[in-house]
Specification:
The chain contains five helices and five strands. The N and C termini lie far apart (33 Å). With 171 residues, it is an alpha+beta fold. Helices cover 30% and strands 12% of the residues. The strands form two sheets. A three-stranded antiparallel β-sheet has the order 1-2-3, covered by helices on one side. α2 crosses α4 and α3 packs across α4.
Amino acid sequence: MFSPSNAAAPPVHLKRIDSPIGRIEITSNGNAITSLSIERAGSLPYDELDENSSTLLDLAAKQLSEYFRGTRHSFELPVAPRGTEFQESIWTQLADIEWGEVRSYGELGILSGRATAGRAVGGAVGANPIPIIIPCHRVLASNNKITGYSGGNGIPTKIWLLEHEGIEVVV
């Protein structure tokens, strides 16, 4: 379901939904999901734009609602995040982390062939443009501590997502 960076990124389609962690804004290029943003301080990146939904975004909204109800544990949506080759390789690994599982930044570094690239891995995880669907919230420090989260309200949002999936958290 993961497409390489040659996919177009402009928000051709845009939909907003309410969720337990705040409003969520999803964008699509018409063929794949290109971004998902969680409300931060009452705003979303494209608040000034009118919604222009599509069948794909309606499906994404349905699957996200099921996720938040706890009845969906994986997403069946085409995604096309854009980033560097390294970022995209990390995002591909994130997509393989299943509901209720976690990985460490170090494990992702080893899997990427760059065992000592902890900061680069952390940067790639933090730059994930499609959180939740590409589950970057499932990455923790090697001691299972939460070191940060760039979505929504930061660490409280990550804690909510992890606890929702039954993952014990260490703050």
